[in-house]
Amino acid sequence: MAFEGLAERLQGTLQKIKGKGKISEADVKEMMREVRYALLEADVNLKVVKEFVKNVSDRAVGQDVMKSLTPGQQVVKIVKDELTELMGGEQSQISFSTRPPTVIMMVGLQGAGKTTTTGKLANVLRKKYNKKPLLVAADIYRPAAVQQLQTIGKQLSLPVFALGTDISPVEIVKQAIEQAKEEHHDVVIIDTAGRLHIDETLMQELKDIRAIKEPDEVFLVVDAMTGQDAVNVANNFNEAIGITGVVLTKLDGDTRGGAALSIRSVTQKPIKFVGMGEKMDALEPFHPERMASRILGMGDMMSLIEKAQANVDEERAKELEEKFRTQSFTFDDFLEQIGQVKQMGPLDEILKMLPGAGKIKGLENAKVDEKQMDRVEAIIYSMTTQEKTTPEILNGPRKKRIAKGSGTSIQDINRLLKQFEDMKKMMKQMTNMQQKGKKKMKMPGLDSLFK
Amino acid sequence: MSFFKKFKEKMLGSTPEAEETVSITNKFKEGLSKTRNQFTSKVNDLVAKYRKVDEDFFEELEEILLQADVGFETVTELMDSLRFEVQRKNIKNTSGIQSVISEKLVEIYNAGEDDVTELQLEESDLSVILFVGVNGVGKTTTIGKLAHRLKGEGKNVMLAAGDTFRAGAIEQLQVWGDRVGVEVIKQSEGSDPAAVMYDAVRAAKSRGVDVLICDTAGRLQNKVNLMNELEKIHRVISREIPNAPHEVLLALDATTGQNALVQAQTFKEVTNVTGIVLTKLDGTAKGGIVLAIRNKLHIPVKFVGLGEQMDDLQPFDAEKYVYGLFADGLDLEEAEEIESDK
């Protein structure tokens, strides 16, 4: 049930206005209906959507269609720019107290990911800001919440202040701040219990904790999958205790994350971090532009490029490109490619970042089997050096030997050889294309490669 | 007699058997008070605002439903069938349209299917219930509540701590086990969850347990490796007991937006989900996602979580749920009827 992205949605509407020089009011109106659907499917709050659509319409009407863009692309661009702008400044910093310890409070609904985020944040503070954080277990209500934070503290070798579950959170925080002063911790991160934004008693508790020492940051932790109610949650927390920033969690899922926009526009508070995985280093700065693409279903090209850059050696990449062009790509190079791809993380996640990945035939439901990659590796490892460079020499007995050595079947080997040939052809096409200018490109065999 | 009135009589009847219904209905009412207030007061405002049923009225109604997370497609379908109904019955005024709206809602909930909200468990043999879902939806808490509920029905219950990944998850389940007074089968953090399940099934068999409830680690549905792990867990259980797991319950957070549909679909593909537990329904102003899920995936909602106490898990009943949504509207309509009778 993958939702169509805005670009795809707009395609139909756009056929009609192809070749026009200016975007008329009627065009905009029609396209804005698609924008509205796309945003609603991404869980952006209806009121926010309405306001947004109004603003964008005003901006779009009468604009000249740029030569390089189709009217549709133009609208998408305006929408995306506007979204990006709304989402606010990039990479907000954490404000630290001039008189340590800096106090950071983590608040939010149950199950948003406060405790995990507390650990991740402490990790970032230590690594990037060179701080010495103290974690405070102030969730005395949920069973084993204290143990959870203690385990995380152990994993990260960070101290956790806990007094069990019989003492009030207010008292715990009071003592924790005292201890932080004594032991010269410069940051105190308070993990509070999850609570409903409508629960007055528990909201009062947060106010009491807040009153102990004015926190430098109050982070509202919000699940990226939250629906229309995100505005109420954000509003209530903000009004009751005054948040300073937002952490959006579970963004490594496949939600569009429209809640980000809703929260941002009702509270005007910056989204400071996003949770991108279950590991303790999976907390990243927020990038408004990427978020805008994501909400619109346009893929997260930037993250993909960054991931690739982090893992691919540029020199080697050039060498490879040369090999593609001259068709001297061998199984050894192929092995290396697989290794690099593997380093980038689970393949299906990478595929999801490609814009329009849902549209490529055969890819929309591509379940990438990582084991298949292992099998491919095993086959190649079972080849002799000569076989790897000149696979043409592979005959029946040789294939039989390789099958035995790699624990696969001859059919597996034949399939791999076929795919390898297809890939070589495709690579040649692609490099030719780059030189000749842009044509529509096909990617034969890419999806079948990992099935 | 209006639909609401019939509803109310059914829900608040005076027979002794009905009394229990009343208390559960009230629980729904209480738990859903936020939802109800938001939703019905909006519908009521709408009815008050528009005397006539026209396009503006429909548009605004559509917006109310969208804001309840019902989702675009389902709302469109609902609106179409409402428009049709209004035309067919020749409804011109907005008074009385509430009952049509709620009728349509119940219709979607029950979409041509038998009510299978009851757990399908073995009569006299070991039954296994597997819990699945994304992170932070309330699986462990729900398991605690369900264990309490089943134990109250006289069943011998055992829990399996299959979330070996998240810090503190095993301890959390153990606390629930102690609270409810049932045994928890566990291994250390980081061990293979499938192995825990194997142990648990063996232990449950040898100790003559009636119901084994298995916890699993929360996982986002797009993580292929983790979904494969879940498949393995499922496989291990069914290898030990042919018909098991008898129930695979997907825990869904009621505050979740449209991604809940993707969750339901993906988990269904991997583990053949037999029912949904809608958690945290007491806090959200929404809950409309149930409609979309029911409409598109035909997975029944079996339980709803309406609070943090042990007995805050209630079997789902579409009619009661809709009654909870519309309780205020009902009183209003009734008052109007009395008014017009005079």
Q: What is the element layout, followed by pairings?
A:
The complex is a heterodimer of chains A (451) and B (342).
Chain A: H1 6-15, H2 25-41, H3 46-60, H4 71-86, E1 102-108, H5 114-129, E2 133-138, H6 145-156, E3 160-161, H7 169-182, E4 187-192, H8 200-212, E5 217-223, H9 230-241, E6 245-249, H10 259-267, E7 271-275, E8 283-285, H11 288-295, H12 301-311, H13 314-326, H14 331-343, H15 347-353, H16 370-381, H17 385-389, H18 396-406, H19 410-436
Parallel strand pairs in A: 1-4, 1-5, 2-3, 2-4, 5-6, 6-7
Antiparallel strand pairs in A: 7-8
Chain B: H1 3-11, H2 16-31, H3 33-49, H4 55-67, H5 72-88, H6 97-110, E1 127-132, H7 139-152, E2 157-160, H8 169-180, E3 183-185, H9 193-206, E4 211-214, H10 224-240, E5 247-253, H11 259-271, E6 275-279, H12 289-297, E7 301-305, E8 313-315, H13 318-341
Parallel strand pairs in B: 1-4, 1-5, 2-3, 2-4, 5-6, 6-7
Antiparallel strand pairs in B: 7-8
Helix pairs in contact in B: 1-13, 2-3, 2-13, 3-4, 3-13, 4-5, 5-6, 6-12, 6-13, 7-8, 9-10, 11-12
